[in-house]
Amino acid sequence: MADVAAESMTGRPITALYASPLLRAQESAAPWSTRFDLPITTDERIIEPTNRFEGTKGVNAQLMLNPKYWGYIYNPLRPSWGEPFTAIATRVVAAMDDAWQAADAGEVVMVSHQSPIWMATRRINGLSLPHDPRRRRCTLSSITSFEKVDGIWREVSYLEPAHELLAASIDLGAV
Q1: Which domains are delineated in the chain?
Q2: CA–CA separation, 83 vs 91, rounded Å?
Q3: What are the pLDDT digits (tens) for 30-80?
Q4: Of residues 38, 21, 27, 39, the one with CA closest to residue 3
């Protein structure tokens, strides 16, 4: 899926490549690195958020019924179980700012995870950060594009070049 996403940008002036330090993001960045002959720069700020449910098999109703976790789920607007939405959005947009500043010309690719991408998208679009995670627009190997005009970020497009492969995919967290 990542190779299809990278292939869809063939001919674009991609001049820098960043990725979250997590292995699945690094693996998803590899086809971009190969196709555009770029090194992968690891940026900790685009990693998925910390979460008290790390290591569990997904957050679901069954998990929520376990009293062990009740102390973590009292405030879905923050969220109380992990890194605050504002912190996620702030660090991801700061990473975007730095990548934009460092780019001499061309376009920058940042391989991250659903939550950081969605937090940056909502912040840039002026939307409230608390949201229903089931309604995120950010599928595996999708491409959300932004540009900075007069010092202000704006969303340009959202693409799902590997859409046809989604039905047979297994979501391991890389996007």
Answers
A1: 2-49+84-168 (3.40.50.1240)
A2: 11
A3: 999 999 999 999 999 999 988 766 666 666 666 677 787 777 776 666 776
A4: 27
pLDDT digit string, tens, across residues 100-151: 999 989 999 999 999 999 999 999 999 999 888 778 898 889 999 999 999 9
* Rounded Cα distance, 128 and 149, in Å: 22
Q: What is the DSSP string of the chain?
A: -HHHHHHTTTTS-EEEEEE-SSHHHHHHHHHHHHHHT-PPEE-GGGSPPPBTTTTSS---HHHHTSGGGGGG-S-TTTTTTBS-HHHHHHHHHHHHHHHHHH-SSSEEEEE--HHHHHHHHHHHTT--S---GGG----TT-EEEEEEETTEEEEEEEE-TTGGGGGG----S--
| 151 neighbors 26 (Cβ within 8 angstroms) | no
Quick check: 120 and 127 in contact, CB under 8 A?
no
Predicted TM-score of the model (pTM)? 0.86
HEC sequence for 71-117: HHCCCCCCCCCECCHHHHHHHHHHHHHHHHHHCCCCEEEEECCHHHH
Place of tokens 């089931």: 134
